[in-house]
């Protein structure tokens, strides 16, 4: 029998990339590849890249410098290492990557990773390959399913991609160019994947997509299903205790989806709903297609449906033309909503997006100062939200052992990490926990004897 070949995949960016990386590993398992955590041991190194963050492309080239040294060291020992760049930077840069980093053998975009075995065969014959087409076939149909052992090794929480791409064209974002138009997977394919995960012990499933609530995949009746209908179907799968979905656009938060937060106990009371800015002028310049009042209205309807909903968001600070009064509108929106957390970034132009060519770019020092003020406010929101959990009892799904012996780490319904002294046999189980202490972003608690429902956390704001 041949020695297994070793695969090292490094994921950058969002959960979509983490999911894609796992599916790449699944598709290479039948070719004899096993995953390794050490790049220096690998026969195949894949960098699965992200284009969202600042200087993403330059970070990939700097990482490729390290990978080239690993490849050269292996060559000196008579061992061949194949280097591949995948994901959104690969899609955007294409052949330029091989030109600037000749150690790279293979470049492929997010829609092409099901072709990995065939592309690798080409490189094994000594060639280089670039594949950044948007093929019409569904890549998910061509992917090998993960083994039971692989699912178990990945833990009790799993991501499942249900939707990819985006038609919204926000003026700061590269996703519509790198991931292409919105597409949704068929319901029966998603259900089969979730059933397989649940049978192997997964208890929490997060449905993911760049614009997940625009989901409109073909259902078993041949008609397009909404995300609400898909969630209801998946909630019926035995073994799935918890459901979440991300990332959502406020314009696609329809009545059925809002009602699902009231009607589906499996759907956790937590939602990531990016707003980016609280100023109507900036929202229009960003082409977000909604106003501040539209967003507040969606949040009010969500909180009517589920009073304890924990909300998180994304914010971009210093978008071109943002004045102090626009920024003040963002701070006041945060005060009005009361978030349980948020991701916030300084605006940085992405080549090829309309925002990059806009006049009135905001000075770096102004962006930095505003970002600090915004993050301070979000931190106060988060502390206030966590404090309202103190002395409450709610269900925690235990995911893994903690740093200290006898400690387990799980997640609350609101997605906070919770640390509890509990036996390892509880990993993969949901148990009621009473919160006794808050430290940083973590909750500490003790096992409660009786199971409990999530607490009512009505009201918000720091
Ligand atoms: S909706 Fe999200 S993914 Fe789509 S263009 Fe806007 S920011 Fe990018």
How big a fraction of the residues is strand? Answer: 15-25%
The number of helical runs is: 14
User: What is the rounded Rg?
Assistant: 23 Å
Helix fraction bin = 25-40%
**What structural class do the secondary elements suggest?**
alpha/beta
What's the arrangement of strands in the largest beta sheet? 2-1-3-4-5-6
Which distinct ligands sit in these coordinates? iron/sulfur cluster
Biggest β-sheet: count, sense, barrel? Answer: 6 strands, parallel
Give me the count of strands. Answer: 19
Shape: globular
Poorly predicted regions are: 450-462
Q: State the separation between the terminal residues, measured CA to CA.
A: 62 Å
- Average pLDDT confidence is 90
What would you note in describing this structure?
This protein is an alpha/beta fold and about 450 residues long. About 35% of the residues lie in helices and about 20% in strands. It has 14 helices and 19 strands. A 6-stranded parallel sheet has the order 2-1-3-4-5-6, with helices on both faces. Helix 9 packs parallel to helix 10 (about 255-265). The protein is globular, with a radius of gyration of 23 Å. The termini are far apart. About 40% of the residues are buried. The model is unreliable at about 450-460 (pLDDT under 50). The structure holds iron/sulfur cluster. Iron/sulfur cluster binds near residues 166, 169, 175 and 249.
Short description:
This protein is of the alpha/beta class and 462 residues long.
Labels describing this entry:
single chain, 462 residues, six-stranded parallel sheet, five-stranded mixed β-barrel, 14 helices, 19 strands, binds iron/sulfur cluster
